[in-house]
Amino acid sequence: MDSRMVPMHAMLRLHTRLFLNCFDEISDEMARQRPNEDTSSMAYIGLHMHDARHYLARFIGLSESNPFERITATAQTIDEIEIYPSLAELRTAWLEVTAALDGRFETLEADSLSDPPLEVDFAFPFEDTTLLGGIGFLLHHEAYHYGQLALLRRIHRMPAMSLTI
To answer: Distance between CA 43 and CA 90 in Å, rounded?
Structure first.
């Protein structure tokens, strides 16, 4: 593995555990509750994060099938999501896309990390426009949502989250 990918790989693995931990002891019903009409639910954030992991997969040249694409393909807001997968389905799908990413992170060639990415359908608010920079930004995007999930856990009177599972 290219040495520049070592911290990215470590973040991918940490984020994988954090995702599972955020939903630990959360029921499907709790996950779908919104604290108010201006706040997302845990289920929506989790579905968005899963969708973003699939974007990351495409971004680095994978063609993993997103089992929830029919749900997210046309929705731009939480109000446009009519059905949600169960948390069990979401966890399984999360681990599946993660396994593909994990393997790909290990085999990305050094030369490609400095190249522009294959797929970019919006401008990242980030200076580094290389494949490596995009990977870093997308992993940062995930980190942002862990804070939201931790806060929503607290609103449900649950501990914020654990670093272990």
So the answer is: 9
CA-to-CA separations, 32 to 20, 139, 148, in angstroms, rounded: 16, 24, 14
**If you ran DSSP here, which 8-state letter would residue 108 be given?**
-
- pTM value? 0.91
Query: Tokens 């919006």 correspond to what residue?
Result: 122
Lookup: tokens for 96: 């599946």
- 5-63, pLDDT tens digit by residue? 999 999 999 999 999 999 999 999 999 999 999 999 999 999 999 999 999 999 899 99
Phi, psi of 8 (to 5 degrees): -65, -40
What structural domains does the chain harbor?
A: 5-155 (1.20.120.450)
Residue type, 24: D
* Cβ 143 vs Cβ 15: under 8 Å: yes
Query: Does residue 51 contact residue 93 with C-beta atoms inside 8 Å?
Result: no
CA dist list (Å): 135 to 34, 62, 103: 30, 13, 15
